[in-house]
């Protein structure tokens, strides 16, 4: 009978990584971040446990999209009231709340359950270069989302 691997809880090591979103493609960046949050890059990955690391994203306002997504991609939110649907294009949301773009992209790639909600709390997104997590000594993580560029 096959059993799911259970890593010892006391041996789980949580690292902090910092990712610079400047000139990165949104979807490719989000999928890499989701992989790290979930812990799929570790040999101790277990599907039903939180084995992932913390990720800090800086320069969220400088993330890129391809094609006509800047003007055609819509972000929707609803107040819960009748007629309370608000829509906003990528360009307008990037000016108003650039952090929300990366948060929404990553959240869509996490599990849709309580585990996904727990994993999402380990994502920290900031619009500028500064972040308040220097005490955690984050390691720089280089993600190359543009094929052919080094």
Polypeptide structure, described:
This protein is α/β, with parallel strands linked by helices and 150 residues long. The mean pLDDT is 94. Helix content is 27%, strand content 17%. The longest helix is centred in the N-terminal third of the chain and has 13 residues. The protein has a domain of 99 residues: Ribosomal Protein L13p, Chain: A. The radius of gyration is 17 Å and the shape is globular. The protein contains five helices and six strands. Strand 1, helix 1 and strand 2 form a beta-alpha-beta unit. A four-stranded parallel beta sheet has the order 5-2-1-6, with helices on one face. Strands 3-4 form a two-stranded antiparallel ribbon.
Average predicted local confidence, pLDDT: 94
Tell me the CATH topology of the domain at 14-64 and 93-140. Ribosomal Protein L13p, Chain: A
For the record, give the distance between the C-alpha atoms at the N and C termini, rounded to a whole number: 46 Å
Largest sheet: 4 strands, parallel
Structural class: alpha/beta
Using only CA atoms, what is the Rg? Answer: 17 Å
State the helical fraction.
25-40%
CATH architecture of the domain at 14-64 and 93-140: Alpha-Beta Complex
Low-confidence runs of at least 5 consecutive residues: none
Number of helices: 5
| Overall geometric form | globular
Quaternary organization: single chain
Let me know the number of strands: 6
CATH superfamily heading of the domain at 14-64 and 93-140: Ribosomal protein L13
Strand order of the largest sheet: 5-2-1-6
Q: Secondary-structure element order, as H and E?
A: EHEHEEHHHEE
Name of the CATH class of the domain at 14-64 and 93-140: Alpha Beta
**How much of the sequence is in beta strands?**
15-25%
InterPro entries: Ribosomal_uL13, Ribosomal_uL13_bac-type, Ribosomal_uL13_CS, Ribosomal_uL13_sf
Protein name: Large ribosomal subunit protein uL13
Pfam families: Ribosomal_L13 (PF00572)
GO biological process, one term: translation
